[in-house]
User: Fold this.
Amino acid sequence: MIRVVTFDEFDPKMVKDLCKVLYTAFAVGSEHSGTLPPPAGFNEPYDAGKLLDAAPAVRAFQDDKILYLTTRKLASRKLFSGEAPTFGVARYNSQRALLSTSSVKNVNENVKVVARYALQELGHTFGVHHCLDPRCAMYPHWTPSFPLGEAAFCVFCRDQIDQKVRVAKS
Assistant:
C-alpha cells in the first residue's frame, strides 16, 4: 500500500488522481491517509532530509510506502559542482519519501508531472536507482526533459519494482 500524506491543503481531486497513477504504476493500493501539520521548527525552504526524518509517524504496515506531499519549497542540495534543485527526497530501500510540488505550475492541471516526480521518489524507496532511459520515471529529474515524460517506468525498472513487491507480499 502506498499512503499519501499531505502537509498542506491540496485539491482532493488532484490527490485522488495522483493515487490512481500510483496504483497503476506500482500495482499496489494507494490512498490519501490524511493531512498532517509539518513538524514544528522548520522554515521555508525546508531541508528535505531533515523534514523527512522529522515527519510525523503514520499508521502503516511494515511493507507500506509513505509519500509526504508539500507545496512548500525545499532547499537546494549542495554538491561539489554547485547547487542542485531539490524536488523531493527518499531513503533507498526504506518506507518514506517526501515530494514538493512548489516547482510545478498549476498542480491540479499537471498531475502527470507531480506523479512522475512521485514515481521517482517512491522508486527509490523500493531500491531502484536512476535509469538511462529518458522515457522512464527513474531518469534523473534534474534534466530539462524530465517533466515532459510520462508517469511510467521502463521495462527494466518495472521488473525491479515488481520483484520487490512480490517479496513484500510473500
